Amino acid sequence: METITDNNPADIDHLWWQTCVIYQIYPRSFQDANGDGIGDLKGIVQRLDYLQWLGVDCVWLSPIYPSPMADFGYDISDYQGVHPLFGTMEDFDELLEQVHRRGMKLILDLVPNHTSDQHPWFLESRSSRDSPKRDWYIWQEPGENGALPNNWLSVFGGHAWELDPATRQYYYHAFLKQQPDLNWRNPEVHEAMTDVMHFWLRKGVDGFRVDVMWHIIKDAQLRNNPVVANSPFDENDLIYEYHDPAYSTDQPEVHEIVRMMRRTTNQYDDRVLIGEIYLPIHKLITYYGADKSEAHLPFNFQLLALPWDSEQIARAVEEYEGALPMDGWPNWVLGNHDRPRIASRVGRSQARVAAMLLLTLRGTPTLYYGDEIGMRDVPIPQDELVDPQGLYMPDRNVSRDPARTPMQWNTDEFAGFSGSKPWLRLPRSFRRVNVELQKEDPDSMLSFYHSLITLRKRQPAFQTGKYTPVYSDKQLLAFIRENDTDRFLVVLNLSHRPCYLLPKNETFDGEIIISTEAERIGLRTENNLLLSGDEGLIVKLER
Ligand code: NOJ
């Protein structure tokens, strides 16, 4: 079955994961087919025609596996099943078939760093110090007077060690105590997770998005993490960001694990391995691996993290382009289920500029369900919050619920998402902001996304062409995408005020083919391009 197709992109056509647009579905919130207020697999099938119309061609599903849902599916109790809330394995097979029938791809979330505390592996591990699976997790003796093994903190706040009263040892959990970390220094854990990957790859899934890839293995000596310089937090706050996770994440040994995952993936034709990695660029790019032996796409989250500032973004794009290893394929992510939505972060007008940036940069774009209609974070009353991150740090305003609300399909009582009250509330504005209305409106966010995606699909210059920065200043950034036949100028005003593109000794004659100001479409450029506030445009240049 060994058919490695991605070692020589220079002499073959680009691969699907390089030219596709990835669309992340948070399954609880996309479409509910059985009327229980929670999205499911049958619901997703119902909406595949919409996704096909939109032009996205790869769907990534957040976890659909059996789970006690302490972290909404990222606490898995069976890696080879489907949670009854989402449907059955037959429903999954049907979804996969329907996705493939439409020429699209399906990627699953793989969560190898931790399991649920209800996973049989952990139940067995915790049952006794002598359990054959004891070493599958990270167990440590208490120090003197019951002291914690080290100073590591949980991403969700508090200590990362939980004492098991029955066996009187601590286990490590980077996230919730219901999410014990696996011990990847144990080869049996490798084997078990490789079996999981084979199970889904054999079924025909097109790849994995690997959860917290940079967390998977920890320092062998479990040394204390250093304190961040000038931290705004106090030691007693027990806030994760108080430390630099130097010993609990991004360890040199992680790369052998990612190589193992890549080797497994490579045993199947044409699959993709994506890594969720929040690290600075120079570290992120190491996850491509020597000779591209690791992740195909280490997720690039810069657009989620950087201030919305044209100079900083221009610099970040250049830094990234410059840092990529030979033939390392770039990618860009604009939203996900862990971060505020783009329209809430930068406002609705700038969200269009952001869409244009995402869909014209070089590299595979990933968009988050609902961003294509400009969904905003929904205010959720305290007593309706369910995300553990929000619940455990109530004074930090970090709940992820607002960005996980149901997809707004139409003006029906529950926005066409469900026949009954959804698990998270809808915003009052859903009667204005929904797919059905926006599809009919040529000026809508959805129509804008549609035209950008269509352009990307039709013009290879955007999918695989060169990227050349042209200009950036305090308001705008501009770049060219081109191949042998076509040349396009992208100009984005990241400010609310008008500005000129002032290129040195360059003229940009051509036709405006997409603009946030529909009135300009079809017009020719003048030499000095003048932009309105919040305007983004694409010019087809005369070569
Ligand atoms: C990253 C996931 O994206 C997030 O939703 C989850 O809470 C953590 N990993 C823990 O699994």
TrEMBL record:
<dbReference type="Pfam" id="PF00128">
    <property type="entry name" value="Alpha-amylase"/>
</dbReference>
<feature type="domain" description="Glycosyl hydrolase family 13 catalytic">
    <location>
        <begin position="24"/>
        <end position="404"/>
    </location>
</feature>
<protein>
    <submittedName>
        <fullName>Alpha-amylase</fullName>
    </submittedName>
</protein>
<dbReference type="InterPro" id="IPR006047">
    <property type="entry name" value="GH13_cat_dom"/>
</dbReference>
<dbReference type="InterPro" id="IPR017853">
    <property type="entry name" value="GH"/>
</dbReference>
<dbReference type="InterPro" id="IPR013780">
    <property type="entry name" value="Glyco_hydro_b"/>
</dbReference>
<comment type="similarity">
    <text>Belongs to the glycosyl hydrolase 13 family.</text>
</comment>
<dbReference type="InterPro" id="IPR045857">
    <property type="entry name" value="O16G_dom_2"/>
</dbReference>
